Each structure stands twice: as structure tokens, then as C-alpha cells.
What does this fold into?
Amino acid sequence: MRSILILASLCALLAAAQSLLPGGADVYGSAGTALSFGFLLLAAFFGGDLIAQLGLPRLVGYLLAGLVTGPDVLGLVSQATTDQLDLVSGVATCLIALTAGGELNLQRLRPVLRVVLGLSLGSVTVTAVVLAGALFLAASEIAFLADLRGWPLAAVCLALGVVLSAQSPAAVMALIAETRADGVLSRTILGTVIIGDLVVIVLFVSASAVARTATGGDADAIQTFTAVLWQLFGSMAAGTAIGMILAIYLRHVRQGVSLFVLVWCIVVAEIGTRTNLDPLITMLAAGVFISNFFDTESSPLIRNLEGASLPVYLVFFAVAGATIRVPLILQVGVQALALLALRAASFWLTSRVVTLGPNVPAPVSRWAWTGLLPQAGLALALAVLVHRTLPGIGEGASALLLTVVALNELFMPAVLSRALIRSGEAGQADAAERFSYPLEEKI
It folds into this structure.
């Protein structure tokens, strides 16, 4: 009841502030952005608290807070406002990637590295092909595909299948942190979704270029290939350099670590995209360098970031919720639900095949597929890119993709949270901080 009253009061206050503006005006500019940031921060916090009382992950509450106060429901947060908060989303992506990379210790993953690689490569490629095949067979029933035939249809379906196979390191990290999970399942899932998203990035750039050419667009194959190489290896090189800087700072300064990291995340979020470097890959590489090639453990860095990054995470997921388009869900809901179910089934089957064998831990074999279900930032970004890069069909394709992503964004975190609890790993991070075990025993 307390959370509901506070949320209602917050909405009433923001509505009252907006009513004082001239007719038709919106809350623009730096003051308006700051107001929206504060409102979404508080709304997400208390929304998460309310949802947690119902036994659901707080992440769902953050998303619902943005959805309810966003343009399509209450309209307290406009589309222009969410666009102005892009920097927050970029910084959050960098923080999530750095934290994920810091947790991606190859020595700890070594016992399940084969499974991680098999899951990440298999889940993306198999699911992309399965979903592309389903779209190809049902093309006559889908408005934006009905006029395509043969090779152009196959190329477009493959590009859409790649987008639908994208996963979410952001959601996985948030749920692992919320449930305080630690163990072989958590680390396997985290490693899988990180590597899987790298595979998605490379496949999408290639598949979208082919689809654009096949549907009459202009794409330079050499230029596209060069851009992919630069985005992948350039981002890795930049991330390694940043990792070295952070490692030196951790070793010799150790003061104000959170603020120092936050500044670097802002720099990468602002400059990285302008130089065609991927912020996710850049900060992921930085975290991996610190975790694997720096003689001091990355755990102090992770602990410093956990508390400091919470406000950014809250606003990040609230903005993601505000970008969910309710009318789109209503228009293509049936098709989206069919793709959602097929995607989940493909992940489950791929996971069961990859984890066959006596050496695979039982929790991984049983629950690893649940970590592949949530979607968030990368899938949303790729859905928007589809709209821009596929002439004539991009709008309809983007609507379908965004609806599938929105449904996965809202409902699949609860599935993963339940799996972490039932596997017995929820709360184990607290135990790991109280007791010290050899790495092999912890795995």
C-alpha cells in the first residue's frame, strides 16, 4: 500500500508540474531531462518494491513503471524525453558490460567453457534459422512480407531471425545481482549471453547488408565487411586500453573508483558510437582484461560499482519500459506470441542438446535455457536499425520485432528468476563473500 501511495503521489506531482506549462508544451531542455530522470528513478524504485511484494523480480517493476508512465499509457514521460535520456542508457550499457566482463573469469568458466561456447553459438545460429524459416513459411500471412518471393524473402527473414535470437546481458546481470545468485549456472548463463550477443552483432551486420541488397537497397560489401571488423576488433582494442587504465588506477589510487569508472563510461557512451565503436564490446573487453590479466582481483571493482550504478540501472530499465509501444503489441500480438513461443522452444531444445553428457552440471542442463529468454537493449537497437535499413518493409518488420522484444522484456525475467531460485544458487553470492573456497570448488 505504501508503494502504491508513493507512486500515485509522484505521478500527481509530475502531472501538476506539466499542467503549469503553456498549452501544448512539453518538458524539454536540461531542467526537464533532470526532472524526468528523478521521476523515473523514484517510480522505478517504488515500482520494483511493489512488484517484489508480489513475488516477481524487481526488474519487471522497473519496466512496468516506465511502461505505465510512458507515452502510450499515462503520457507523463514523452517520447522526446526518453530520447533525451539516451546518455543514461548508454552509460548503463557500459556499466553493465564492465561488470559482466569483470565477472567473466576464464579460469572459473574453464570447467564449462565448452558448454558456454556451444550454447552461445548454437542458440543464436539455430534459433535464427528456425525463426527465419517460420517467417519464410508464414510470409503470405504477414503483411510486410507478402509481396516478397524467393531470395529477397529469405534474406529478409534471416535478418529478422538474427534480431529475434538476441539475448540480454543487461537483464541477466540485473537478475543475478537482485537474487544474489552465484554458481555454475549463473556463470554459464552470463558467459553465454555475452558471447551470444557478440555473435548476434556480427551476424546482423552481415545479414542486414545482404537483405538490403536483395530488396533493392545499396550496400557496399567491402565497406560493410570493413565496418564489422572495425566495430568488433577496434572496440576490443579500445576496451583493452581502458582496462589497462582502470587496472592501474585500481592498483595505485583506489580512491573514488566508482566516480572514475562512471566518467569513463560517459566518455565511451558519447564518443564510442560516433566513432563506430560498440560501447558494449568496448567495456566488456575492459572488464575481461581486468578479470583475467590483472593480478588484483576484479571483485573490489564490482563491489564498488554495484551500489553506485543502481540509480543508473533503475532509469535505464524504466526508459526501456517507456519505449514499449502498446498499440504495436495490439496490432501484431498473435504473430508475436507465436514467434515468442517458437523462440523459447528453440532455445530449450538447443540447450538440451548442447548440455548432453555426464560432465555437464545438472543445474546447467536443466535451467541454462532460461537465461537466453530475456531481451532488452541490443534487440531494441537492432529492431530500430531494421526500420532504417530495409526500404519499404522496415516499418512493419520493426513493429513485429519490437512487440516480440517487449513481451520477452516484460515476462521472461520472471522465468529466469525462478530458475535461479529453484537451482539453489539464489543468495549464494552472500555466502561466497563470507567464506573463501578454491575456484574449482566454487564451480
Remarks:
- The chain has 22 helices and no strands.
- Residues 432-443 have pLDDT under 50 and may be disordered.
- The radius of gyration is 21 Å.
- Residues 165 and 200 are 8 Å apart (CA to CA).
